[in-house]
Amino acid sequence: MTFFRKDDRLQEYGDRILQATWDTFPELSENQIALTWIPYDPPIAVNTGGALSATEFWKYQPRGFHYRGVERIYPASVVKLFYLVAVYEWLEKGMLQPSPELDRAVRDAIVDSSNDATSLVVDVLTGTTSGPELPAGPFETWKMQRNLVNRYFHALGWPELETINVNQKTWCDGAYGRERAFLGTMMENRNMLTTNATARLLHSIIGGVAVSSQASQQMMALMKRSLDPTDLAADPENQVTGFLGNGLSLDTGVWSKAGLMSRVRHDAAYIELSDARPYVLVVFTEGPEQSRNEKLLPFVSQQVAQAMRELSQES
């Protein structure tokens, strides 16, 4: 059972959006895209500053649409959202002590999507470090420690998190030494997420119930994206151009975390339009061609935004 409920009207819109996408991008195969879309109908229970307790918040079951939302896909930098939540959980529980250097690494991992910063975050969360290959015994201990974040998310008991894997660092050139051994011969232990799992985590953050209301607000502040063309031009590696915030009006609020590497282009976003209700949209695309395609995710985003305007007028 997912955290959202199926809705026939939303299914019609979702099918229409997907068909328009395939018509516009015929090179996109049906198994190269996964999507989860959660519109928020009144009373809107998110981005309230944590006005609702977790118990009350989870009583709300928004309607939602997904296409291949349970398929396990390599998430690239979208996994950093999970490490972000884990950091705040560890701090809340006293498992970590705050420090300027940790703050800097968390900020750079989310705002700039730095892999070097993420490496430190994973080290701090798990008490492990990269380095040469280890003998069998110490390596077993190391692997148990590195799976600490996995155990935390699996312990939440969310069905969407049962199949995820979030125990690897993110790399520019690739893993070496014990990190490469940990990935497995066929990379079978690499990070894996689904759009449904990512959407639920994002839903909890903007709902103010990820760790605590204060922590959720701090996480949202790190995820806030500027759509100002001047800001985007000044940062060629921004997480808007070629992603879900691209092409939306400048008065749109966007909180997001993108993922990009040679074989995937993803984005997970919470979006507040000025002329429609807010929503969560998570889109994963796979394939070298899709990775290079800067028009695909903006097209999907604009189709969903138009559907939100139509949905807002229906009720």
| Helix fraction bin | 40-55%
Query: Which regions have little confidence, pLDDT < 50, spanning 5+ residues?
Result: none
**Span between N and C termini?**
26 Å
How much β-strand is present in the residues? 5-15%
- The Cα radius of gyration reads 19 Å
Integer average pLDDT: 97
Shape designation: globular
SSE order, one letter for each helix or strand = EHEHEHHHHHHHHEHEEEHH
Biggest β-sheet description: 7 strands, mixed
**Which structural category fits the helices and strands?**
alpha+beta
Q: Given the structure, what is the number of helices?
A: 13
Commentary on this structure:
With 315 residues, the protein is of the alpha+beta class. The model has no long low-confidence stretch (mean pLDDT 97). It is 43% helix and 13% strand. It is globular and about 60 Å long. It has a seven-stranded mixed sheet, with helices on both faces. Helix 1 packs antiparallel against helix 13, helix 3 runs parallel beside helix 5 (115-126) and helix 4 packs across helix 5 (115-126). It starts with a strand and ends with a helix.
Key descriptive features of the protein:
single chain, 315 residues, 2 domains, seven-stranded mixed sheet, alpha+beta, globular
List the topology elements.
Layout: E1 5-6, H1 8-24, E2 33-39, H2 54-57, E3 63-67, H3 80-93, H4 100-111, H5 115-126, H6 136-146, H7 148-155, H8 178-183, H9 195-206, H10 213-223, E4 224-225, H11 229-234, E5 253-261, E6 264-272, E7 279-286, H12 288-292, H13 296-314
Parallel strand pairs: 1-3
Antiparallel strand pairs: 2-3, 2-7, 4-5, 5-6, 6-7
